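Tokens as discussed.
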């Protein structure tokens, strides 16, 4: 009886997390096609690889906003020019499994262990806005925006990248009606962007290479 009461109290305490975990699980059972779970599809992976190859033509790092579990980070690290730094930024506020932030970070660090150990990738734990405000490094060759998908956040990340003169600006979730990405992108690039799957990119290569 007491054990059941304790279990009930735990369910009440964690009901928000339990609801999120059950809803993710049910969504997966109903449509395994959404397995990307906040990450990228195979088609989008190919597009990211192309963009990373293009970024090899510029000095400066590749910056990813929104690491999640580091799967796209690993792809970027595998496809980048040797010696080109990769910086990935996450405040670990969201993941599709409802992992608490500390566990989410630890899990991601394990996935990225090889890249972090060799120094190919630097993981910045913190908010995108704070990272941008404090950034004093070289002008990035490419920024990939996939963190906070609100209109305001994407607008501000694009404005930061444009202000620095980043030649290749791209991101995820273009055309996703749940988010404000499309509005922010269309406003910042009135001449249009290139889109593959939900990966958008500016017309890179039209600006002079440094
Ligand atoms: C859609 S997932 C990123 C997916 C990842 N790019 C991939 O392809 O696998 C979004 C990530 O952005 C992070 N995030 C959300 N808002 C953020 C913010 N304001 N600053 C930093 N990270 C943020 C979340 O913690 C989450 O890990």
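Sequence:
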């Amino acid at each position: 009886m007491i054990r059941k009461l304790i279990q009930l109290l735990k369910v009440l305490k964690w009901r928000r997390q339990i609801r999120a975990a059950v809803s993710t699980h049910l969504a997966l059972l109903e449509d395994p096609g959404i397995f990307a779970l906040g990450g990228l599809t195979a088609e989008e992976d190919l597009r990211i690889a192309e963009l990373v190859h293009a970024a090899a033509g510029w000095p400066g790092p590749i910056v990813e906003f929104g690491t999640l579990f580091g799967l796209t980070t690993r792809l970027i690290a595998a496809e980048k020019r040797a010696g080109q730094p990769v910086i990935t930024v996450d405040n670990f506020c969201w993941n599709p499994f409802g992992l608490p932030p500390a566990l989410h970070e630890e899990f991601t660090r394990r996935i990225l262990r090889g890249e972090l150990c060799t120094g190919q990738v630097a993981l910045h734990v913190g908010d995108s806005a704070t990272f941008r405000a404090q950034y004093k490094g070289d002008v990035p060759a490419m920024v990939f925006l996939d963190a906070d998908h609100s209109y305001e956040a994407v607008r501000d990340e694009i404005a930061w990248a444009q202000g620095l003169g980043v030649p290749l600006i791209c991101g995820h979730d273009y055309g996703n009606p749940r988010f404000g990405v499309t509005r922010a992108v269309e406003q910042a690039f009135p001449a249009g962007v290139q889109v593959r799957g939900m990966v958008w990119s500016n017309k890179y290569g039209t600006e002079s290479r440094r």
